[in-house]
Amino acid sequence: MDRASRCLVIATIFALLSFVYIGYATNITRVYVDPPSIVGYSYSPGTVFTINVSLNSIVDLRNCQLNMTYDGRVIGCFGMLIGPSENEPFGINFGWDDELGEIWINVTYRVPVTSENQITLSTIFFFVKARGESPLDIYSCSLLDSLGNSISCEVSDGYFCNFNPYDINNDGVVDMLDISIAAYAFGSYPGHPRWNPLADVNHDNYVDMVDLSLIARHFGEL
């Protein structure tokens, strides 16, 4: 499976999982990345995007602690907002480390959070460093009520991908190496001994002049 197809499949899985979670009974507390997937070549190095860590169907939330990992080589964090403001968050401890690829949040609310609707716990700001893919993995989450009791929850992660489909060898630039790889696969199709799905950039199951022309048109892109 080529990179573009893999990104699409992963994004679809995250979207379907998000839909399934939404279909659950409202008394199940969920903590999730919103949107569940951010995929697209337009997210070039230097661009920025945001995600929300959201929550729904919660009763008497006094304290929230969570940790998220990401690939710090592909994306970098440069800030976050903690909410909901109407619940007067205080004692906030949050931060990030691009080298480790980790975000941490610990917040207590003067007014406990109770809601059946979506609540934004945090808005996180990222900038794109390079082409690639990154999980947005909430690997640890603890919710406590006013008595210090644990609130059970389900967690749904996120995903980022901005591969350049014309950078066939994924070395960070569309160049003659990519054209050479496609040229070697010229005339091939699935099952052919020279078939390379990455060279089939228009995904019509045949490597031809259309593919070579598309790669050449994007020559020099990062």
Commentary on this structure:
- With 222 residues, this protein is of the alpha+beta class.
- The chain has two domains: 3-161, Immunoglobulin-like (Sandwich), CATH 2.60.40; 176-217, no CATH class.
- Strands 2-11-9-4-7-6 form a six-stranded mixed sheet, covered by helices on one side. A five-stranded mixed sheet has the order 5-8-3-1-10, covered by helices on one side.
- Helices cover 17% and strands 40% of the residues.
- It has helices at 3-22, 176-184, 209-217, and strands spanning 30-34, 37-39, 48-56, 58-69, 75-82, 89-97, 102-115, 119-128, 133-144, 154-156, 158-161.
- The two termini are 22 Å apart.
- The protein is built from three helices and eleven strands.
Question: What's the arrangement of secondary structure elements?
Answer:
Layout: H1 3-22, E1 30-34, E2 37-39, E3 48-56, E4 58-69, E5 75-82, E6 89-97, E7 102-115, E8 119-128, E9 133-144, E10 154-156, E11 158-161, H2 176-184, H3 209-217
Parallel strand pairs: 1-10, 2-11
Antiparallel strand pairs: 1-3, 3-8, 4-7, 4-9, 5-8, 6-7, 9-11
What distinguishing features does this structure have?
222 residues; alpha+beta; Immunoglobulin-like; 2 domains; 5-stranded mixed β-sheet; 17% helix
Give me a quick take on this structure.
This protein is an alpha+beta fold. It folds into two domains: 3-161, Immunoglobulin-like, CATH 2.60.40.680; 176-217, no CATH class. The chain has three helices and eleven strands.
